[in-house]
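Sequence in, structure out.
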Amino acid sequence: MGDGIATLRAAVVVDYQNVHLTGHELFHASRHLQRHESLIDPWLFAGQLISARNRAQRPGMDLAELSAVLVYRGEPSPEHDPKAYARNQAQKAHWEREKRVTVQLRPLKYRYRRDTGGNLMYDTKGKRVVESKSEKGVDVLCALAMVREARRPDVDLVILASHDSDLEPALDEAIALQSAKIETFSWFDPAQPHRMRQLRPGGTRRVWNTRLGETEFVNCWDRSDYT
């Protein structure tokens, strides 16, 4: 461009559950809703993020254009959670109708109930009784994506959307490549400034952080009916 301002091709890496649940628990609009009622649409979220990021830039600073949204999320078991599994698959298909969105799922880790003798317990249908479930490895996928996208010749900016401090070393690694520009995101409520901590690289290095508030959170809700 003649005025010296470049358009940065931006890839947004989304730690989906972290982004969804931290927003759900932070803002008044969703605090009393069921979690699925504040489900975020990754493309709408990334659009809100890029718009807010560009508005906050000082005159003469480079603006960003969204080129890819990479979403990482846990996948329920079709055996133990068939309805949740079906909704999960439907959401992935719906979100990926936007060709710039890619959703990668990783099976949830299930812990099974045992009796006092350490033996697995089964229900009346002969299935193992689930005690708890959790995401496993999603943070690793996000970290790998950060570094991979930072290396791509067609990516100028990578934004990590997560509040998980375990991902801070990935920021360091991506910055060390000295290729793409690296930035972060955080939800922010001015009435509760202590609630959300933004991710920071190690040492004295600093990266730009884009804060999104309650209005942006509501604007990126996925209002589709997956029931």
